[in-house]
Amino acid sequence: MRPNSRALEAQDTASSPLLVQDTVESPLLTRADIGPSSLNAGITWACLGSAAIVCLAPLQYGYHIAELNTPKKIITGCAPSVGSRLPQCLPMSDTMFSLATSLFAVGGLVGSLGAGWLTERFGRRGGLVYNNIVFVLGPLLMALAVSPAMLAVGRFVSGVGSGAAV
Length: 166
Hints:
Distance between the termini: 58 Å
Largest sheet: none
Oligomer: single chain
Strand content: under 5%
Number of strands: 0
Radius of gyration: 26 Å
Structural class: mainly alpha
Helix content: 55-70%
């Protein structure tokens, strides 16, 4: 005995509001499907705040690309420091300074390429949480750098976070 094809179609369309139903009068999505509050809500303050925060990520990327150029003489010009665990400056050649500066862009490339995987693996919320860990770790490495290599690694890690955010 063959099941009624009309009954099967009605069952399929009832489970998914996006499937076209037989009658012309019925809309694809109704207020009951979406919920009455979401149709009348408009733009909320939370939506505007989220959009503003998302728009800041590219600004951070642009700022961090050139942030080491202005204080170069202070970072590389050493004066003897006494009684401090952190050095007052990091003596390095122009080549090492250029490498530390450019590793941010390389990290940005790695972060941009890995952001899709991160989001698919952990979801949007989980991806943002893990990216925030990178956002904290990178600047900590740069601020607590005791060698030019540690500064360069911090720049790379910051680049990964910024690239994933963009």
